[in-house]
Amino acid sequence: MPFGRDGEVLSYKEQYSAYYESKSSSKKKKKKVKVKINPRFLVFVAVLLALIIVPIVLISGGGSYTVGYGAYDTTGSGFDALIIRDELCYMDDPVGKIVYSVVEGQDVKSEQTIMDTYAAGYIDQIESELISIRAQIEEYQRDSLLGKIVDTKLTGLDSDIDEKVDQIISAIDGGDMNIAKLELQMASLLSERQEYLRNSSVAQADAQLMTLYGDEDQLIGRLEAWRTRYKAAQEGRISFAFDGMESVLTSSNIAALTTADVERLVSGESAQVDAQIKSKQALYRLVDPDSWYLVFTAGKKEWTHGTGQSVLVNIDDYSYLDAQAYVESAKEDDGKLLVTLKIDQDIGSLLNQRITHISVGERTEGLMVPLKSVKTKDGQRGVYLKDKEKTFVSVNVIVDDGSYAIIEPLESNALIKGSVIRK
Questions:
Q1: pTM for the whole thing?
Q2: What is the pLDDT of residues 20-44, one digit of tens each?
Q3: CA–CA separation, 383 vs 391, rounded Å?
Q4: Of 152, 199, 268, 386, whose CB has the highest number of CB atoms within 10 Å?
């Protein structure tokens, strides 16, 4: 790790400032060179471009168009919606201390340790004694053991630890204070190093060091009686944020919600939560990031999509802007519709959000052609094939944006992707 003259740790910027200065000072101003172009050269370029462009225009079809496949998205009415997630929420009686093994927003695997909690009233003195013993172990290792152990494994661990220290310093110097993940990685490396030293043959043969390890094990055993370890019951994304509505707004409770419930919660009112749940301490949520819902109310004339239909949803503050959803239900209640949309894509920035504004549209997919290629013959709209007979294919124009149209031939397979039509 780089140090200054007085032993202080140099920042990332300080380490490389001299380098940047030397690079900038070595740069010399370049003189501008004027190039005089011969007029005959310009004529040659013009002729060459003409020879290239003319064949391209001819190849493009000379009045024809190849039918493609496209999609057209329409945006409809806006609604304020509740976000309901598929998640497992963990609560417990008030605890005295929590030691986290993962960070907010981290994806975890089944059986991965999330945290250790220590019951309220656990003895701080035990932890203080444990810290003291570990300091003695570290000092003894440094003074009496490390000189006797020289191998690539230990050298590699020390190198990884130095690199992690540099990463943490760089993150702090860069203004990134979200270093919890780096600190957890550092703790893991230090623990691995201690375990490696403890199991070395040199350490095993040192009676004084083994006595210190025995004292450490005894204190750890006393702490174990106060500890509860939480592991992930399944794969998911971790969040430590709670808004108090987790026990009410669950995927299994959606069917019980009314339009009045949703409108009240969307307006900012708090949900009625059981007193027994309130007495618990919220620990963490294990969220399925690819399964969530939007629930909102709509007027009967505002909502025209049927159950099972796919819709495009634009969501405020959503990392991916749009989501493809399907209508899980649209039930009538008190003169309005209570709509539930199911989304099966990453929840992203909405992991801890409860209310959002959405605009619901529709995606139409199908054969796409230029709108100007759609003609009318005997009162029927259609397109002309690029063939000798100038065959007219009758179509329905499903949707257009003024330039292109999504069409459907009235006769099955009369027009397919790749068909060539007249413009």
A1: 0.61
A2: 343 334 333 444 434 444 544 444 4
A3: 8
A4: 386
